[in-house]
Design the sequence.
């Protein structure tokens, strides 16, 4: 909770800009030198998708204190909204071959479809929020979980098959890569578009949290009764947080569809919500940078680094216990360790600052000399 | 008739799980998300136990091991968080549920395990023109017997009185010298024991165990507990029977030729949401007002 | 304390990343074949049996000869966890390990999800038992050696009709494209023949099928068509037996599994399935495969605990040799050349002739095998070869 | 005199228990009015009815002569109601606490309720949210930077006034007890109230702190030109600063008047017998 002096603030901004520029340079380099199917590309893409959803859930659970478990449901709406408007025109009949003539038979530009996806999720969340936001903590959790399950059933229902393709996957979707293939940006079409969407979404959420509305959210989280007594309209502010969170979850869902390339309702179960919630916890409830960091770490370890645990050889060790499913066991144990012993996650409710890193690096020699515990990473509000 | 019979039987099994939810909630104010998975684990242990020992040994073995697992989970995952915010404890419960499922996945290799046949329970019987298994008939009877026993324990024994005290006011009863940890362990013992009994009945009826077997019955039992008024044992039982019967009856109806069968689960959730919004305290629950 | 932990975590992550990157060196005399199959999740059981078939084939023929030079074949396995999003990264894993051709998967939606990744990497994929039309349609890199849902549905419709069924009841899992695809094709074909179909779906994780069986009875159906995955199949069989269902159960290739036999053994239910391969159809393969299974207990476990030959294993076996044929024809381990060569492969395997059509790269199959479960011996009985007409 | 708050026949009944019985009172502009009574007399319940936390069972409340809360025995209470004036009120109207705050009533809590995760500065700044002119869009994209700057400046001003400027960046809950009380009052003042409701502001304070608080309340009234209604046990404080006092016992008003009048009222002495002594 240290407040930076004006001079430090300036330094911090400079550091942030440098970091950001470096990050973009790295991404451009990755996009230019990698194949679109390289693991690093896939992991970064999926990390972006998760970062959006995780941050959106953190807005709700971490900053407003509403324990909602409906994230998968809103992602589902986003993914479907995006998909029905993004099927390749030539393949549409084939995709819907089991469901009858498709109702929607045109393709929208990719960005429009993504925004539409967010809006649809926001609309649904508004309707769902009207009854359920009055509920208290765990009841709210179970009610939102229930709504997500109901939504999934409805989407899969064959009576809506001509829109949603029922239980059949919607494939042949529009992708950034296809859109940018013949343009000057062809070499920037793998991670960069995902990254841009993620930066915009997370940026907006961050701005909101730092606005007067964000303070009102935190007030509700800290003490509902006091917040109401200070003139904060609980119903309205909870709804704002819920709808905003769902809007970005919807966008996350749409991006998920872009990432997978096809959409199917089956993966959007409560298990997905739990996964996202656990990433929020790992990153630190109430920390945006923690959420982002945790998303990328989680995806990278799950999809990439720890794969060896499943296939017999991990870090050069071969053992018969490394067989299918072991990775998930290790994963759940790590998560339990976090939940029980590092309840504040990687970042707690603090934020990461590039100035902090800069100082940490500068102080590194001194630290090695013995002052181990002192100021490794400066933190800032 | 078939639908009703199936409903009553399922209801009985939900009731046994729902009691575990409702008791834990009553005392710790925690939705024990892992309860459904304990139920699944009990099923898996039975599968493995019967390959190693005869049936008359494996049934008590399963009951014992399940109780131990239940209490261990409480000790490891919930006890350290007793003073933490409610959200942390609930997240821990979700974590435990995730862990149990993954361990089960690893152990079974993702294959569905066939539940062993218990000779008497699995025999078929004909009543009221409907053919079914003995277990269907026995379940409601056994459930009610167990619940009566449980109510007796809570009413008349010392630990039962302590339980009621703790569920009314956690801190005060602690100050009054109630051994909180013993009471909580006892709650988990009873809850896990009933879940194990429920799992034997349930899987004898539906003899296939997969790592996710526990999640749906678990959720529905929770809905039943809420429906009956969470914290109330008779409420949980009544709620469970109502939900069991309703979800089976909905499969029998069709509106305008459109079958509603896909919505049997969705219906349970819709019911839950309606109850929460209209009467959050459930059928038999007490209304709690927040103190300012 | 926390910072130390964070530091350890970072170090561990970095080490792990090296471990993940390392170990994929490829030498010039090795050709890699990727196995893209689920080993966990809803389709884990089937995926494992399919993988066993491929592995057995690899043990039978671990090398390939091109222009007098012997190349070693190396199998690279990944688990797609029966989940779409995991399928994408699993596919990327195969691409990164530089496989020349991919075999799999069991289950269509994972194949559809992985398809763009293989397409971008220009690697041909051979679908083993993914029966949804969307897998191969409109693309030139995904082939498949099995028949499609519409075909299988039609075969069963015809078979049912020929056996005097006038009303059929179909039961499928909501959200499962395979189930509903077959159910829908069955319905279309059966109604065309003049029959009546009552279709119902059940939600995921359903365990209680009592009411569905009652519905089937009440609908006056003479047969139930339930093309579900194996874990539900066990429960459906149990419920049907308990309620004394006197009408036959029909199902698709998923039910062709020893798990079904175990579930049905000693029970009074009639089960008929369509399948790609009939055990006993090729004695040499059957005996060899059984011997191979029995040589290693983990193989037996993956096969569901016994040594009955599943059709998917036979399909896996054939897919491997189909890939070998293509490699031979391409005279190279180069993915692009193999893809080109695949169009002209004509190979007769244990499950019949495999030759791809020139539009989508689907195997041209005209007959399916119908089998019935023998509930006393716990084995499959061959019924007939059945075509659409 | 201009009436700021008027209670008419307020009755609160929980099940069969009547906590507040037919209470009527009036607070005029610029006054400091105290509501006192022995433990369990129903003071806090009355307070919660005024601030919209509880719905009264019967009766009406006017703020600046405008009806804000009104109720009649309804539902289960129709049969159970044991209070007076049944049938006198017909309108059913209940404003939520935030609406009342918006109208100009602000309150503090008996058991301090600060925003735990926030600094002193942020606690007060958050209360400024109520009087914002920006909407969600302009606030999110920081187009309201002028307003935001103003909010911050006003917050600093307020903190200086209540002498908390030096601890503005401390975590609110890390302050000593007395300062937390002050901060709660400052936070309430940040909503620009005309009527300030203080729920036992001196609870748990030693005599010296109480004295400081008395001074502080007086300053606040002068500087902000507001009306104050307070519940209190510390008789010194009450007698020192109140213009008028209402005394209730068992939910019923037993006396009303200036501090001098109350001190000599036999009824009050009876009700407090022993209690007042003990308290001092």
Sequence:
């Amino acid at each position: 909770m240290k407040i930076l002096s004006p001079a430090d603030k300036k330094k911090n901004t400079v550091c942030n800009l440098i970091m950001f520029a470096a990050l973009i340079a790295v991404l451009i380099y990755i996009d230019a030198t990698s194949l679109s199917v390289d693991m690093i590309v896939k992991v970064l893409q999926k990390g972006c998708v998760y970062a959006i959803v995780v941050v959106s859930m953190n807005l709700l659970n971490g900053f407003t204190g509403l324990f909602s478990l409906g994230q998968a449901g809103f992602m589902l709406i986003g993914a479907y909204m995006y998909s029905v408007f993004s099927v390749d025109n030539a393949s549409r009949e084939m995709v819907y071959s089991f469901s009858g003539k498709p109702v929607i038979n045109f393709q929208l530009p990719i960005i429009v479809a993504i925004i539409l996806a967010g809006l649809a999720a926001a609309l649904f969340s508004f309707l769902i929020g009207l009854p359920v936001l009055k509920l208290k903590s765990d009841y709210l959790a179970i009610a939102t979980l229930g709504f997500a399950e109901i939504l999934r059933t409805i989407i899969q229902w064959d009576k809506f098959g001509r829109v949603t393709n029922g239980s059949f996957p919607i494939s042949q979707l529009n992708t950034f890569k296809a859109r940018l293939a013949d343009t000057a940006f062809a070499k920037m079409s793998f991670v960069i578009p995902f990254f841009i969407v993620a930066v915009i979404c997370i940026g907006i959420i961050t701005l909101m949290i730092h606005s007067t509305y964000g303070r009102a959210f935190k007030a509700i989280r800290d003490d509902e009764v006091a917040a109401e007594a200070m003139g904060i309209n609980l119903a309205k502010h909870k709804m704002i947080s819920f709808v905003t969170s769902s809007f970005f979850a919807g966008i996350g869902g749409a991006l998920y569809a872009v990432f997978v390339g096809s959409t199917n309702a089956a993966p959007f179960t409560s298990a997905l919500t739990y996964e996202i919630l656990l990433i929020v916890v790992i990153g630190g409830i109430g920390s945006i940078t923690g959420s982002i960091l945790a998303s990328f770490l989680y995806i990278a370890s799950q999809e990439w680094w720890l794969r060896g645990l499943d296939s017999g050889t991990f870090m050069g060790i071969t053992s018969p216990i490394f067989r299918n499913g072991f990775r998930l066991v290790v994963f759940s144990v790590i998560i339990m360790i976090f939940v029980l012993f590092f309840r504040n996650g990687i970042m707690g409710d603090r934020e990461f600052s590039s100035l902090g890193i800069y100082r940490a690096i500068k102080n590194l020699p001194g630290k090695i000399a013995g002052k181990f515990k002192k100021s490794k990473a400066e933190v800032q509000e | 008739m078939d639908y009703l019979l199936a409903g009553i039987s399922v209801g009985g099994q939900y009731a046994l799980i729902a009691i575990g939810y409702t008791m834990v909630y009553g005392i710790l104010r925690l939705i024990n998300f892992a309860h459904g998975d304990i139920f699944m684990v009990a099923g898996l242990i039975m599968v493995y136990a019967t390959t190693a020992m005869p049936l008359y040994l494996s049934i008590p073995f399963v009951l014992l091991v399940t109780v131990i697992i239940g209490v261990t989970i409480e000790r490891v995952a919930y006890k350290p968080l007793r003073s933490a915010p409610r959200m942390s404890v609930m997240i821990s419960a979700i974590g435990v549920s995730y862990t149990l499922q993954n361990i089960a996945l690893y152990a079974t290799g993702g294959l569905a395990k066939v539940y062993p046949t218990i000779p008497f329970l699995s025999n078929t019987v004909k009543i009221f023109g409907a053919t079914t298994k003995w277990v269907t008939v026995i379940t409601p009877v056994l459930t009610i017997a167990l619940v009566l026993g449980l109510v007796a324990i809570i009413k008349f024994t010392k630990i039962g009185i302590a339980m009621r005290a703790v569920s009314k006011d956690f801190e005060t009863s602690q100050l009054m010298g109630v051994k909180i940890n013993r009471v909580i362990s006892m709650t988990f013992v009873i809850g896990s024991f009933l879940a194990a009994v429920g799992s034997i009945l349930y899987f004898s009826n539906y003899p296939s165990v997969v790592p996710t077997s526990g999640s749906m019955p678990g959720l529905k039992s929770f809905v039943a507990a809420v429906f009956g008024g969470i914290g109330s044992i008779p409420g949980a039982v009544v709620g469970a029977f109502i939900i069991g019967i309703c979800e089976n009856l909905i499969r029998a109806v069709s509106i305008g030729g459109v079958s509603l069968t896909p919505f049997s689960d969705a219906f349970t959730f819709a019911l839950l949401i309606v109850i929460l919004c209209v009467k959050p305290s459930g059928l038999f629950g007490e209304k709690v007002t927040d103190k300012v | 304390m926390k910072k130390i932990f964070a530091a350890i975590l970072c170090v561990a992550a970095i080490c792990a990343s090296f471990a993940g990157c390392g170990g994929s060196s490829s030498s010039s005399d090795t050709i890699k074949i990727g196995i893209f199959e689920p080993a966990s999740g809803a389709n884990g059981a089937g995926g494992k049996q399919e993988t066993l078939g491929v592995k057995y084939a690899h043990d039978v023929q671990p090398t390939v000869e091109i222009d007098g030079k012997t190349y070693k074949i190396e199998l690279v396995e990944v688990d797609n966890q029966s989940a779409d999003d995991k399928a994408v990264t699993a596919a990327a894993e195969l691409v990164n390990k530089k496989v020349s051709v991919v075999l799999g998967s069991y289950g269509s939606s994972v194949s559809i999800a992985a398809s763009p990744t293989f397409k971008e990497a220009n690697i041909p994929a051979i679908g083993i038992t993914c029966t949804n039309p969307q897998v191969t349609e409109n693309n030139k890199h995904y082939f498949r050696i099995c028949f499609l849902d519409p075909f299988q549905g039609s075969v069963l419709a015809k078979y049912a009709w020929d056996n005097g069924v006038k009303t059929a009841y179909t039961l499928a899992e909501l959200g499962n494209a395979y189930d509903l695809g077959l159910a829908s094709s069955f319905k279309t074909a059966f109604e065309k023949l003049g029959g009546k179909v009552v279709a119902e779906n059940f939600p995921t994780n359903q365990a209680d099928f009592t009411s569905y069986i009652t519905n089937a009875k009440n609908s006056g159906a003479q047969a139930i068509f339930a093309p579900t995955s194996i874990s539900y199949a066990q429960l459906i069989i149990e419920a049907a037996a308990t309620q004394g269902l006197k009408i036959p159960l029909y199902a698709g290739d998923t039910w062709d599994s020893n798990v079904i036999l175990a579930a049905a053994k000693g029970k009074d239910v009639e089960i008929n399935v369509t399948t790609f391969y009939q055990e006993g159809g090729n004695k040499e393969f059957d005996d060899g495969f059984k011997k191979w299974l029995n040589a290693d207990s983990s193989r037996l476990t993956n096969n569901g605990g016994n040594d009955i030959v599943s059709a998917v294993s036979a399909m896996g076996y054939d897919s491997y040799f189909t890939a070998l044929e293509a490699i031979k024809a391409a005279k190279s381990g180069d993915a692009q050349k193999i893809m080109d060569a695949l169009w002209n492969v004509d190979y007769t395997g244990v499950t019949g002739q495999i030759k791809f059509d020139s539009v989508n790269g689907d195997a041209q199959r005209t007959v399916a095998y119908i089998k019935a479960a023998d509930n006393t011996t716990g084995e499959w009985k061959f019924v007939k070869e059945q075509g659409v007409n | 005199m201009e009436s700021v708050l008027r209670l008419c026949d307020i009755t609160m009944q929980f099940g069969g228990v009547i906590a507040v019985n037919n209470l009527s009172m009036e607070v005029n502009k610029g006054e400091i009015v105290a509501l006192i009574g022995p433990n369990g007399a129903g003071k806090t319940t009355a307070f919660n009815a005024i601030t919209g936390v509880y719905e009264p069972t019967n009766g009406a409340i006017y703020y600046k002569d405008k009806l804000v809360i009104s109720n009649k025995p309804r539902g289960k209470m129709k049969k159970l109601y044991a209070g007076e004036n049944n049938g006198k009120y017909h309108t059913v109207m209940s404003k939520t606490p935030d609406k009342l705050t918006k109208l100009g009533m602000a309150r503090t809590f008996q058991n301090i309720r600060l925003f735990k995760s926030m600094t002193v500065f942020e606690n007060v700044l958050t209360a400024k949210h109520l009087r914002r002119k920006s909407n969600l869009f302009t606030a999110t994209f920081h187009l309201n930077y002028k307003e935001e700057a103003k909010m911050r400046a006003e917050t600093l001003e307020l903190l200086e006034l209540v002498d908390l400027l030096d601890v503005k960046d401390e975590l609110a809950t890390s302050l000593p007890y007395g300062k937390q009380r002050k901060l709660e009052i400052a936070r309430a003042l940040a909503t620009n109230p005309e009527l300030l409701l203080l729920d036992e502001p001196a609870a748990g304070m030693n005599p010296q702190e109480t004295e400081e608080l008395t001074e502080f309340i007086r300053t606040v009234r002068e500087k902000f030109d507001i009306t104050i209604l307070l519940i209190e046990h510390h008789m010194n404080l009450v007698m020192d600063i109140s213009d008028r006092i209402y005394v209730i016992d068992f939910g019923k008003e037993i006396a009303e008047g200036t501090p001098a009048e109350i001190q000599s009222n036999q009824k009050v002495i009876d009700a407090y017998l022993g209690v007042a002594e003990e308290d001092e």
In short: Chain A touches chain B at residues 61, 65, 67, 131-132, 134-135, 137-139, 141-143, 145-147, 149-150, 153-154, 156-157, 159, 225, 270, 274, 277-278, 281, 285, 323-326, 328-329, 331-333, 335-336, 339-340, 343 (CB under 8 Å). The radius of gyration of chain A is 22 Å. DSSP finds 17 helices and two strands in chain A. The longest strand of chain A covers residues 313-314.
